[in-house]
Amino acid sequence: MDIVVALAFNGLVWGLIIALIALGLSIIFGLLDIINLAHGDFFMVGTVLTWFVLEATGNYWIAFLIVPLMGFLMGALVERAVIQPIRGTAALSIVATFGLSIIIQEVVRAGFGAAPKRILPPIEGTIPLFGIEYDIYRIFAAAVSIVAIFGFFAFLHRTKLGTWMRAVRFDRDIALAMGVPARTVYMVTFALGFAMAALGGAVAAPITTVDFQTGVDVLPFCFMAVIIGGLGNLPGTVAAAVLLAVTEGIVTSFTDPTVARIVSLCLMSAVLIARPHGIFAGATR
Amino acid sequence: MLEVHDLHASYGKVEVLRGVSLEVGDGEIVGLLGRNGVGKTTTLKAIMGLVRASAGRATFDGVDLTGLAAHKVPAQGIGYVPQGRGIFPNLTVEENLFLGLRQDPSPPQRALVFDRFPQLKDRMDQKGGTLSGGEQQQLAIARCLVMQPKLIILDEPTEGIMPILIKEIRSEIRKINKAGVSILLVEQNLVTAFKICSSIYLMEKGAIVHRSSAADLKTQPDVVHRYLGMAA
């Protein structure tokens, strides 16, 4: 029973981190109509940058603070150089972001190396939780993800830039005619998506391996969350990410992870058949 | 004030505007009429920078609008009420109202809206999509007024509005005009156009084919019939 509880908690923690990453994927899709195949690599860049900053400073908390900012700047740069020139052509966006994904992976392999590395959790120790001893750092990771997710929704609904994002997402031309700088909104949205994935990477680095291919594993999971939650449906994406990860965690405690992933894929297929616009379609757009 | 000279624009390979020229002077209400699909809305969009002009230019108080990024056009003093009103249904009335402002609205900016449209004050937290057609039109006009424009471009403001409210909208447009704001009005409702416009341009196949005062046009039923397909 203990293993079920532990893996369910691990699933919950991982689901919250995935939710943070998938939110970025979802807003980039919802606002820019970009199917971002490089989004998993943005997460990977977050883990690798964390490793580099930790190597340079010896302090994980510096990485925790500056890696999301570095992700934001990189996101702004990528939006201007890669995304902006192809905006409005969804098919090209798949090709361009796939190419970007390969470039990012190869640059990281060249600079960081092909061998996976590990980062020790900056908070050690465990606390009793539902009858098991659970890592304090994992609870911290879940808390950071929850705060970041709520922070993102607060930003979206309580700031001028967030209002502009929702306006541009609904009708770009009308927003422009009201004086909303849509190009800046696109850039900030993409940069924010990168920053959230990078924060996810910084938080996840001590509980996963730091590897140039990590993004390849994360991307399908994020897409499943976005599809099950409803394309462009942000609260739905968060709920689906947590649901999927907890389900996989519990299934993994009885069988192997491959079967758990098959269960997730079956769940996604069932949702696509029964509710093609996602479980939470229509709740928010 | 607004001068449009030989404006051309295309959607892909289809040329929609073929040399539109018109003027709106200080304090004027100018009508732009024509059948569906002749390029009226495209003309307005080209002025607002939402459709790129392939040739010709539009200037406002000497500033070349065709060279400006679309989001910078409202700051020149031009408000736009698009066809269908363009209310964001997913934003609250307050968010819709002050969308174009960089900072929080000042008390005078709030007063400007609430004095003219007091009913909006009680609906600030409501989603824009829950308002009736007439209320949405008021919100769309109020959203322009917040920016303190010198010219408001209205694209079919009476479309889809209950007949009983059309008179109110006409009266509102007159009041705004009397406060010193010029109006460029695209309208299918001929009665409205005749009642409030000082001069009227008629469009056909992407070009201006006739210009006269509203009073003169009333006396030319053949022109009205030829270009609008209706009796004056």
Oligomer: heterodimer
What percent of residues of chain B are in strands?
25-35%
The strand count of chain A comes to 4
Rg of chain A, Å, rounded: 19 Å
Low-confidence stretches of chain A: none
Q: Given the C-alpha coordinates, what overall shape of chain A results?
A: globular
- What profile does the largest beta sheet of chain B have? 6 strands, mixed
Largest sheet of chain A: 2 strands, antiparallel
What would the principal axes of the Cα set say about the shape of chain B?
globular
Q: Mean pLDDT score of chain A, rounded?
A: 91
Helix content of chain A: over 70%
Order of helices and strands of chain B: EEEHEEEHHHHEHEHEEHH
Coarse structural class of chain A: mainly alpha
Quick summary:
The complex is a heterodimer of chains A (285) and B (232). Chain A is built from 11 helices and 4 strands, in the order H-H-H-H-E-E-E-H-H-H-H-E-H-H-H.
What would the keywords be for this entry?
heterodimer, A: 285 residues, mainly alpha, ABC transporter involved in vitamin B12 uptake, BtuC, two-stranded antiparallel ribbon, two-stranded antiparallel sheet, 4 strands, 4% strand, globular, B: 232 residues, alpha/beta, Rossmann fold, 2 domains, 6-stranded mixed sheet, 4-stranded antiparallel sheet, 9 helices, 33% helix
Write a structural description.
The complex is a heterodimer of chains A (285) and B (232). By secondary structure, chain A is mainly alpha-helical. Chain A has one domain: ABC transporter involved in vitamin B12 uptake, BtuC (Orthogonal Bundle), CATH 1.10.3470. Chain A contains 11 helices and 4 strands. A two-stranded antiparallel sheet of chain A has the order 1-4. In chain A, strands 2-3 form a two-stranded antiparallel sheet. In chain A, β2 and β3 form a beta hairpin. In chain A, α1 runs antiparallel to α10 and α2 crosses α8. Chain A is globular. The N and C termini of chain A lie far apart (40 Å). Chain B is of the alpha/beta class and 232 residues long. Chain B has 2 domains: 156 residues, Rossmann fold, CATH 3.40.50; 60 residues, no CATH class. In chain B, α3 packs antiparallel against α5. Chains A and B meet through α6 and α7 of A and loops of B.
